[in-house]
Structure formats: C-alpha cells, structure tokens
Design brief:
The protein has one domain. The chain is built from 5 helices and 2 strands; from the N terminus they run αααββαα. The protein has a two-stranded parallel sheet with strand order 1-2. The protein is globular, with a radius of gyration of 14 Å.
Length: 138
Amino acid sequence: MTINDIAKVCHDANKSFCEIIGDESQLPWIDAPQWQRSSSVDGVIFNLNNPGGPPSGSHERWLMVKAAEGWKHGKNKDPEAKTHPCILPFDKLPEEQQIKDHIFKAIVNGLAIFCTDERQPTPGLGEIAKKTEAEKGG
C-alpha cells in the first residue's frame, strides 16, 4: 500500500462522512482536483511522520499549507477565490469538522504498518507553494 493509496482511502472516508453530515460537495478521488488530492497526500505524509500527534496537529498543518497557497477564511469553500470555512483554529471548528481530522488520523495510523513507500520528510511550506504554482501552470 502506497502513500497515495492511503490518501485515497482517507479522501473517500472523508467524502462518505461529509455525505452523512449533509455535504454532497466532495468528489470521488478519481474526479477530485489535483490540489485536493495533493492536500490528502500531504496530510498522510505529515501523519506518518507524526503518529502520536493529536488530530489538531493535522489541522494546524493543513492551515499552514492553505496559508502558503494563498487561501483565506470564507463562508463557502471556493477554490477559485481560495476561501474555505474551515480556515479556523481547530478548537473553533464545529464538532463535525473536528471529527474529520480524527477520522483522517485514525486511518493513517491504522494503515501505516502496511505502507510500502519509504517514509518521506514532510514537505516544507515553500515546496508546497512552488508545487501549487507548477500545478496551476505558473
């Protein structure tokens, strides 16, 4: 099982949980935009490197990545405007949003033993910003 495989499992579990809470906006992994798949892969790498860390640590990492990519807090998730309602401190998130981080971390921790990829260092924020620009064709 690769890091990408674990990211797909996490993404699909997140999609399923979102549907339970009434959010039908998540696309299947195969149809998800590259930025979203890259975010899942980054989250897997971060959690593989921090297995004992709290789910809030995963969210804080996500916040730093989003800030490096130019995202801001907004009422609605809008990739074009780079706004997202979850760009808040973990303890300010609604419970159902916090649960998503718990699910993600539990999946990574549960599948880590089966990961066949070499452990990668967690990418620096500068690397992520450059990768984001490259993915946009910039």
